[in-house]
Specification:
Length: 163
């Protein structure tokens, strides 16, 4: 038997930050501030990420580029490994990402790369809850996803390593 199956992705679109709950507004503001710590002399593309932790703490990250380009670390992974390194790998509940370029202004949401989606999947599984993901550009809408599955369907994860 052969079946054709369609997947749908649910997400919310907000036209302004004020429409979001307070904690999510703060998370986006923190991600924006984190852009100041980015090291992006090669791409001129600056990204900030902020993680909302179970107890309300915020852990930030930014993209850290390298003269050996492939050694660059994205903002999302910087924040996630920072939280893990602080011993809080199970406490991550929300992620906000914002990015812009020194050469032009972003007006569409900056969306996590494939490698970051895979790493997000790992930490989401550790938290045991769908991760709230907020992405935005310097201007333009905010997209809000609940669960990495929306951005990475059919993900390989920790469960796949066990029978
Ligand atoms: N980058 C991120 O940090 N996060 C994203 O979601 C997209 C891309 C960084 C990697 C690199 O330093 C620069 O943006 C251009 O790809």
């Amino acid at each position: 038997m052969h079946e054709s199956i369609q997947l749908t992705i649910d997400f919310e679109k907000f036209d302004s930050i004020e429409e979001l709950p307070q904690d999510e507004q703060l998370l986006i503001t923190s991600a924006r501030e984190a852009m100041n710590n980015a090291h992006s002399p090669y791409s001129h593309f600056t990204v900030g990420a902020a993680l909302g932790m179970k107890n309300g703490d915020i852990v930030i990250g930014s993209n850290q580029e390298n003269a050996a380009y492939g050694s660059t670390i994205c903002a999302e992974r910087s924040a996630l490994v920072a939280a893990g390194s602080l011993g809080r790998k199970e406490d991550i509940r929300k992620l906000a990402v914002i990015g812009t370029s020194k050469d032009f202004q972003t007006s569409a949401p900056v969306t996590p790369c494939g490698a970051c989606r895979q790493v997000i999947k790992e930490y989401e599984d550790l938290s045991g809850e769908p991760l709230v993901i907020l992405i935005t550009g310097e201007t333009g809408p905010i997209h809000r996803f609940v669960g990495i599955e929306s951005l990475l369907p059919f993900a390989f994860g920790p469960k796949d390593l066990n029978k």
